[in-house]
Amino acid sequence: MDFNFIIQRVIGILTKPNQEWEKIKGEQTDIVSLFMKYAIVLAAIPAIASFFGWIAIGKSYMGYTVRMPFGRGILLLAFTYILSLAGVFLLGFVIDALATNFGSTKNLDEAVKIAVYSSSASWVAGVLSIIPVLAPLGLLAGLYSLYLLYLGIKIVKAPAKDKEVSYFIVTIIAYIVITVMVTMFVSLIVFGRMGGMY
Question: pTM for this structure?
Answer without folding.
Answer: 0.84
